[in-house]
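Practice problem: predict the structure.
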Amino acid sequence: MALTTEELESLKRYLRVDEIDDADLEQFYNRAKVYIKNEVGPIDETNGDMKEQYDQACALLVQHWNDNREVSRIGNNSYEIPHSFDSIARQLRYCYPAGDMT
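Answer:
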């Protein structure tokens, strides 16, 4: 699912990038959505609070993946996903009622 122009511009502002290709940014974002759904399970995008946290988690992953494109880096743990993502993922997993979610 493609990002809307507004969502794409919001993500660019969050990342503070202009030079990244829109197609690359959308690809990172779509991969982040899949990653998070695999990590926490279904996301109820009709729940405003859950949707905001989901969008934030996607943005964090996109930023992390954009900043850490190298295969490996010796003596640097920057490839670890930030703690803030883990915190949001935990909240998405446990703070919202389970049910029929998309």
